[in-house]
Amino acid sequence: MKLCSLLLLVLATALSSVFSVHADEWSPITGKESLEALYSGVVQQGDLTRKAKWRTEYCANGTGILRAWGQVFPRTWRAVDDERVCVTSDANTKVECFRYEKNTSKPNTYRGRDVVSKQVWEFSILDEEPAFCKAAPEKVVAPPSAAAPAPKASAGPSAAEMAEKLANPTLAIGQMTSSFITSQYRGTLPDSVNQDSLLYKFQPVLPFPTGDGKSFLLRPSINVLFDQPVFNANTNSFEEQSIELGDLPFDFVYGGTNKSGLLLSYGIAGSIPTATSDKIGSDQWTLGPEILFGQTFSWGLVGLLANHQWDVAGSNDTDKSVTAGQYFYGVNLGGGLFLSSGPGFSYDHNATSGNKFTFPLGIGVSKTTKIGNRIWKFAFEYFYYLESPDVFGPQHQLKFSITPVVELPWSK
């Protein structure tokens, strides 16, 4: 009995010690000087996801930047009293205030708590000088106000900030877009108006930053056709197709956006004959030049992407010469919501008269939001085709897209 009592006493003492250490693990940081030391000439870093990180560089003059998802976002900051630091985001229109604690058992480990939402996240202070501050002006910027804190805060950039970045097709942001596209057709072929199709398109955007604010972008597109009408001349009717893999179009471009908001990228576009059926694919390798240009404004952006491709190899001896691309626009409605669309057009130089031009009008809306700390973009678009091949071509099209922003190993 004495041995059991002794063991229980030792165990109780050990547990009490563990819980005591755990309770004292975080210590509040108070006092303006102590809070300013967390920001003045400091680099902070924390986790967005298991692999992706956010990083801030704050300067003594109250300015700073946030780096996340391969992009840079401006910040200003101020210790407003002995308990809170307030930070601006969303182009100085959103104010978030935080209280801070230090981990007593882990050096350089801290956590911030939003004073409104009570959301908490951990970060570290790195042993390095913020490069951004070397070029920052000495004059102190207008300080953030603590009068109107935002209703919600989270680590990394806001959804509204990321919505502006995602609307720009020249920026180095890793994305994985899944699109579901349904089309209705018209034409002179028998029963054309009763034909429709369903396409699943997976298009990753793989950026390779060059360190000068620009990047190379590789954008392949994997197409899975669930229901594509194919006309059989022998039976003078359309055939139902099983699920097939289509050809693989791609582009590889270099460019970016300059300080005046000009969008410019250029490179090559092509297609690889990966189709699982000759009735769906072209049996041709195609290649040609591509250029994108546009302009950003305070309200959004507009632009045009165009390429021209010729057949360069393959078993199909038919000559191909097609000019194609898309025009795009985005109007920022605020809160991560955009009125936007990117209709694709084409002109087949070798087609017969009346079958050369395909051109739609497009309208759509997109919403960028945060789920956890992951950025997601959801988009819905409708296209009405003013021009399509007389024999057989699309008339209406609906497109629904889901795009998560992803971390890429080489972009860290």
In short:
The protein has helices at residues 2-23, 32-37, 159-166, and strands at 26-29, 42-47, 53-58, 63-68, 71-79, 85-89, 94-103, 109-114, 120-125, 175-186, 196-209, 215-220, 222-227, 230-232, 237-239, 244-245, 248-257, 262-272, 284-296, 300-314, 321-334, 337-341, 344-348, 357-371, 374-387, 393-404.
- What number of domains? 2
What is the molecular shape?
Answer: elongated
**Level-2 CATH architecture of the largest domain:** Beta Barrel
The level of helicity is under 10%
CATH class of the largest domain: Mainly Beta
Helix and strand content put the structural class at: mainly beta
Which stretches are low in confidence, meaning pLDDT under 50 for 5 or more residues running?
17-22
By CATH, the topology of the largest domain is Porin
H/E element sequence: HEHEEEEEEEEHEEEEEEEEEEEEEEEEE
CATH homologous superfamily classification of the largest domain = monomeric porin ompg
Radius of gyration: 28 Å
Provide a count of the helices.
Answer: 3
End-to-end CA span: 60 Å
Strand content: over 45%
Biggest sheet overview: 15 strands, antiparallel
Overall mean confidence score, pLDDT: 89
Could you give the count of β-strands? Answer: 26
